Amino acid sequence: MNPTPSDAQVAALNRRIVLAARPEGAPRLSDFRVETGPVPEPAHGEVLLQTLALSLDPYMRNLMDPVGPGYAPPVALGETMVGGTVSRVVASRHPDLRPGGLVLANAGWQDFTLSDGSDLLPLDSGSAPALPPSLSLGALGMPGFTAHVGLLDLAQPRPGETVVVAAATGAVGANVGQLARLHGARAVGVAGGADKCRHAVQVLGFDACIDRHAPDFAQRLAQACAQGIDVYFENVGGAVLDAVLPLLNPGARVPVCGFIAHYNGPMEGASATDQRPALLATVLQKRVRLQGFIVLDHYGERFEHLRRFRERMHRWIEEGRVHAQEHVVDGLLQAPQGLIDLLAGRHLGKTVVRVAEA
Amino acid sequence: MNPTPSDAQVAALNRRIVLAARPEGAPRLSDFRVETGPVPEPAHGEVLLQTLALSLDPYMRNLMDPVGPGYAPPVALGETMVGGTVSRVVASRHPDLRPGGLVLANAGWQDFTLSDGSDLLPLDSGSAPALPPSLSLGALGMPGFTAHVGLLDLAQPRPGETVVVAAATGAVGANVGQLARLHGARAVGVAGGADKCRHAVQVLGFDACIDRHAPDFAQRLAQACAQGIDVYFENVGGAVLDAVLPLLNPGARVPVCGFIAHYNGPMEGASATDQRPALLATVLQKRVRLQGFIVLDHYGERFEHLRRFRERMHRWIEEGRVHAQEHVVDGLLQAPQGLIDLLAGRHLGKTVVRVAEA
């Protein structure tokens, strides 16, 4: 158990978790280091933010590699790990941001940071008073928005179609399945283990969920998708994709948002033979639309698209139509272990680190 | 030289070229057999068609495999090879089709066939009086329409963007490059050999064309695409795709219409290692849209979409804005060698077999 520092402590000190070494394969605790320093002072036009909750996400593994994923620069050795946060404005020299307000921010893995306000989304404007602020890191934030953009904007499932998503109890997958159901589609999940599959069906409302560790996984997926697969929301790659490809229906849409199976090394999850010709043959013969997307592209002018998404999603959560599950890691210093556990698939729902009391 | 049969002979006899054996790798002449039989008689509601020109196309290799490409059944052993034709109605018991008219048909590799009219597009309705009827198998037909659908409907190049197409002097590629130029994009071709590359630039008007046999092919392609690649019209796979992937710009569109590199066997053109994870990583990081399509899907209600395309393309050809090159193979019995040569890349432009005089 990691003690939460007292207010006096956090006021005196900024703790940062920096990248100490570049992992080979799965990250280890020794790849991270804690550094402490003074709390920075806002210049004119800046605010000082205190981190309340930190988001942990699979993409962070990519940013630990020497060559980043292209859409964002890698974290330099010795630099603070990056990440989305719910933060409180604790001091302001910015004309529009007052102390006390909550914002969606990019403070990274640390207690305090400065911002000029350009990357902040105010959260206390009355849109979500009854829900925990940390949901803005999950169902109401980047992972929920990723599900929304990939499924609804790009794949556009029609009523009665079959939508498959892996990591079905993860921060993105759980929302994909629930949004698919809300739009009249059949949702078939894939998850690692019987407990997760039960959760997907009983709590999240998936029509079926298949354990990817089952020896007859491919056959069971085929049985659960007797009418074929119309939308495959790709976030894992590897063996799940192998089982999905033969089941794709003509005209299938495959939004591509990530590859957890490959994040710990480019060749992990690779076959001994070249599967690219077979993939392209499927794309051609089934007229598949494979569409990569980075949710950052879709934040739009001053978060306007995100803002509209948040309003819809907030209503669905309040109405009980979307279940927003969180796995809370207690304390900033537990973030490294939290990311290691997340990448190993040990969490249910969205993983957030509680850094300070809201 | 294959003598053209006299009118008396063709009236008496139907020659069919049938699939004699399933090729392993490149087809050989022994995979085909000529059979003769009586000219069939049209039943009520049918027409008798005489083949004037037969289209040869790479997809025919796929139909020779025991398991077809999915969008069309494979040719059975002993059955007539299938193919698009320009045919003349020589006898009619159909209310709407009169003897003497020309139609775009699917007569296959034979002199005569029957049709109930449902798969015929009349050609003599005044839309293309000044152009050779066989162009309806090339720039005005399936290959031209494939270029049109893939490039203009799916990829939608914007002025100033860079479009890359392989098999640049082939029936589809030549149209892709010329249509790209017509829409203000830069067209960079890839072709096998210096002669083809010269033809692409000097006759077809490509901005550049790179010889895929050059030892420094990838570097030369990169130099020709200094602003990156916005559209890659995929019709070959293999090494060209390897060179293209690192050059794709964010938001690139990749319509997928075929894989000549893989047609003689699923693993031909495959790498020793699995390139699927790398392809998917590129799709994700560059937000690529990879879109398989089968042009048959786009013929639309009673060929309406094809009809509109033909009107536009006919005007461009007449105005000299699109150059429609044909490689004419003389005589039905030369069709097998014609397909073998086509697959080996020995032809410039669209390959058609002249079966009878128009």
TrEMBL record, chains A, B:
Single GO MF annotation: oxidoreductase activity, acting on the CH-CH group of donors, NAD or NADP as acceptor
Protein known as: Putative NADP-dependent oxidoreductase
Keywords, in A-Z order: Oxidoreductase
PANTHER family documented for this protein: PROSTAGLANDIN REDUCTASE, PROSTAGLANDIN REDUCTASE 1
Source organism of the structure: Hydrogenophaga intermedia
InterPro entries xref list: ADH-like_C, ADH_N_2, ER, GroES-like_sf, MDR_fam, NAD(P)-bd_dom_sf
UniProt cross-references to SUPFAM superfamilies, sorted A to Z: GroES-like, NAD(P)-binding Rossmann-fold domains
Enoyl reductase (ER) domain: residues covered: 27-353
Domain of life per record: Bacteria
